[in-house]
């Protein structure tokens, strides 16, 4: 992509974020109260309190300020920022409450999933569906399907409001299914000058501080978080420090299947960080949780071309291998803030962009607080047990098939004969 085109795209996506930070800075500088300390009158005698007061330490005796006792900077998953926000930070000094305004520019996509199965016993298939709840950046308009399953239904799982399409075929028939879904999306921006109207539910925040099978929230994760943060106390600045560290210390590996395994525990033990989107963004989530900031991975699918870099979107209508994991973290007063350190590493790996390239620096600023919505979110579920199965899988992002007693994952190209087509439509 030419530099001129990229800068134009970057300006379109980050204008709202830049203006918000500038407005916040100006508001902070203009709202400092003038000093109200009364001046001593000529000839006035000092009070008994001041005459009898003794300096508490050598610094105070020399007329300096008393240094506040230094406690641990980082919170923990058991003592999170949502319960005890540091004084004088973005989580303690909340901006005025303002109603969130819906975006004005929306794009609508039709996603068609086609499955063809050769009969090899009884077949059961699960397909992940887009978010079943409307948000300010995504709305599911409806589903339609056709084929020859003997049983088909939409099933909602309790984990993360996760919804799937389930169908069954009996012995003796080849399986055919075509599922069409329409979703409308709008670019998502984090605005530091606006406070969300209602806080997130306590049980959801607690869940996103807990460890999962592959994402720990203590031990090595907490030690790493403390080293990254140093004396940073502001929760938004803490998350930004973790975001920057993950980008600088991870490697994107395009040779891995799907979105990777999301195994953060192994990364921490080996001291080798990276993989694909589930691994890199999962690492960000694990460190945030370990220092007491609720965070979660969001599992979804690329459905259109990118205005930023070619590798961050589709080059045509084929979205069969377009699965991609993003992340978000929660700060009291601001709600869920979107990030995507994995896509920064993806651009470096796939497009040969230098770390010092100005376009890459712009992309790093954009992807902390902005999601370009040429992507749709499916769910935020982890450790998922599908109906009828006895084991939990780390996340659900690709089709899952049981052919007789054999289990197949859509991450393996030859395991399930399916295609996903995505195209933008006009309503």
Protein architecture, described:
The protein is of the alpha+beta class. It has two domains: 107-184 and 381-425, Sandwich (Immunoglobulin-like), CATH 2.60.40.2250; 193-379, C8orf32 fold, CATH 3.10.620. It is 26% helix and 24% strand. It has helices at 3-30, 48-52, 58-61, 202-207, 220-229, 235-249, 264-270, 277-290, 341-351, 358-366, and strands at 107-117, 123-128, 138-147, 151-156, 163-169, 175-185, 188-189, 250-252, 273-275, 295-302, 323-331, 335-339, 370-371, 375-379, 400-403, 406-409, 418-425. The strands form five sheets. Strands 4-5-2-15-16 form a five-stranded antiparallel beta sheet, with no helix packed on it. Strands 3-6-1-17 form a four-stranded antiparallel beta sheet, with no helix packed on it. A four-stranded antiparallel beta sheet has the order 12-11-10-14. The longest helix has 28 residues, at 3-30. It is globular, with a radius of gyration of 25 Å. The two termini are 30 Å apart. Residues 20-25 and 27-70 have low confidence and may be disordered.
What is shown here, in short?
This protein has 427 residues and is of the alpha+beta class.
Can you tag this structure with a few keywords?
427 residues; alpha+beta; Immunoglobulin-like; C8orf32 fold; 2 domains; five-stranded antiparallel sheet; four-stranded antiparallel sheet; 17 strands
């Amino acid at each position: 992509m030419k530099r001129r085109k990229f800068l134009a795209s970057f300006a379109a996506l980050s204008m709202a974020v830049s203006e918000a930070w500038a407005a916040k800075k100006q508001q902070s500088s203009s709202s400092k109260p003038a000093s109200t300390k009364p001046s001593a009158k000529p000839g006035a005698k000092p009070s008994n309190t001041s005459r009898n007061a003794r300096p508490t330490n050598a610094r105070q005796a020399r007329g300096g300020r008393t240094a506040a006792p230094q406690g641990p900077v980082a919170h923990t998953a058991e003592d999170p920022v949502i319960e005890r926000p540091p004084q004088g930070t973005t989580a303690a000094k909340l901006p005025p409450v303002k109603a969130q305004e819906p975006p004005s520019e929306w794009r609508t996509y039709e996603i068609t999933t086609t499955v063809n199965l050769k009969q090899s016993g009884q077949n059961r298939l699960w397909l992940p569906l887009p978010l079943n709840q409307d948000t300010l950046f995504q709305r599911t308009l409806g589903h339609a399907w056709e084929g020859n399953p003997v049983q088909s239904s939409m099933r909602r799982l309790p984990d993360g409001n996760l919804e799937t399409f389930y169908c069954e075929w009996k012995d003796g028939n080849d399986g055919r299914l075509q599922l069409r879904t329409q979703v409308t999306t709008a670019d998502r921006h984090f605005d530091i000058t606006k406070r969300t109207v209602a806080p997130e539910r306590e049980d959801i925040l607690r869940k996103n501080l807990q460890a999962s099978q592959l994402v720990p929230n203590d031990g090595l994760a907490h030690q790493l978080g403390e080293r990254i943060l140093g004396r940073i106390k502001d929760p938004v600045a803490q998350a930004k420090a973790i975001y920057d560290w993950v980008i600088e210390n991870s490697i994107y590996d395009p040779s891995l299947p799907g979105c990777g395994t999301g195994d953060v525990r192994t990364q921490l033990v080996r001291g080798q960080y990276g993989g694909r989107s589930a691994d890199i963004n999962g690492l960000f989530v694990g460190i945030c949780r370990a220092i007491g900031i609720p965070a979660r991975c969001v599992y979804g699918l690329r459905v259109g071309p990118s205005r930023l870099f070619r590798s961050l979107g589709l080059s045509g209508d084929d979205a069969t291998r377009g699965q991609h994991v993003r992340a978000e973290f929660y700060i009291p007063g601001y709600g869920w803030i979107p990030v995507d350190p994995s896509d920064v590493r993806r651009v470096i790996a796939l497009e040969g962009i230098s770390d010092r390239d100005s376009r890459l620096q712009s992309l790093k600023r954009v992807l902390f607080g902005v999601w370009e919505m040429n992507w749709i979110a499916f769910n935020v579920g982890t450790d998922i047990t599908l109906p009828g199965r006895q084991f939990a899988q780390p996340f659900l992002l690709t089709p899952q098939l049981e052919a007789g007693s054999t289990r197949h994952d859509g991450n393996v190209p030859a395991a399930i004969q399916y295609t996903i087509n995505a195209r933008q439509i006009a309503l």
